[in-house]
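Researcher: Hi, I'm a grad student and pretty new to this. My advisor asked me to get structures for two proteins we've been looking at. I'm not sure of the right format, so I'll just paste the first sequence and hope you can take it from there.
Model: That works fine. Here's the first sequence with its structure tokens right after it:
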Amino acid sequence: MDQEKLLERITFNPQIFGGKPIIRGRRLAVEHVLGMFAAGDTAVTILEGYPWLEADDIQACLVYAYRIIGHERIENIPGDDATQVA
């Protein structure tokens, strides 16, 4: 499935999680799926935990995150040691 088609699975509803991106209008936020990956879950364990979820939904979350990060503007903050390269 191409990226544009995958992104159709990501929706927004101000009544659900304050309008954060969610999957197919359900009460599962993209950030929650990404957080599960960050915590060490795999696509298989995520799919097992949400029987209605499809592999393409997980791929859509990754595409959405990729697109968002690709448009971030990075700036150095004067005096911020975190921006220094060791």
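Researcher: Oh nice, that was easy. Here's the second one.
Model: And its structure:
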Amino acid sequence: MNDVDIRTDDDRRVTVVAVLDVPPEGVQAFQRYESRVLPLLARHDGWLDRRLRSADGTTEVHVLSFPSDEAYRGYLADSERVGSEPLLAGADVGRRVLELLVDVGPPLPVRAEIVHLNLPALEALAAGDLAAAGPLTPVPVTPYLVGSECRGVWRMRAAQVAADPVSAAWVTGLVWDPDGQRTVGRAGFHGPPDAAGMVEVGYSIDPAHRRRGHAQAVLRVLLARAVREPAVRTVRASVRPDNTASRDLVLAHGFRQVGEQDDPEDGLEIVYEVPAGS
């Protein structure tokens, strides 16, 4: 049985708390069910705010959001058209939701994948050509990724890959959210490790998807990659002094300030480093 508590905030955002029973046949069957539902959620601009699972694995609680009641109703209608049982449909059962929230475990971590790109895709993104970039990338490209905040990065990465094709496996790619089935930003290293074994991380999440754990998830991916690469000894992050969110994120992952630098585009940056694998 799936129970739902629906709330509308002052900004008209609809928050849905869904209590879901994992079927007796196991988590794999539940994941197949999710694979039908989550793409519909993304199609209507909904997102997974929080996901928790009970210690015995029989119950999950999903906290999801839609930008408006219209988006939520559109999701329900779409579910009916494709013949998929709506994940989020039902009466207000707030009391049962609160009771079950006491029994579930900690939130399941947000997941992220970095999809690396070839030179033609990087060049199309650098040119701001959304139509040309789409067929060249393995996952969808959004307007944010061809906007002014991203084009300069793509130009630098395209030049790097043109000069050194091996760097394509290291430099900035697209951040893919496998649970929400959507592209949420860009991330990667600034290049392969230098002679001292240092790599520098860079990431930027689309403003439409910020404050949902994607930056933390992609930083974990980058740090895990650094551990797997024998040539990497140090991971660096350069952060503007006013970017307190990124500062707090890197500090939480063991980075420590080692200096400052003057970036030609971003101005003063604080330089943080952490040994790979620490």
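Researcher: Is there anything I should tell my advisor about the second?
Model: You could mention this: Residues 39 and 57 are 23 Å apart (CA to CA).
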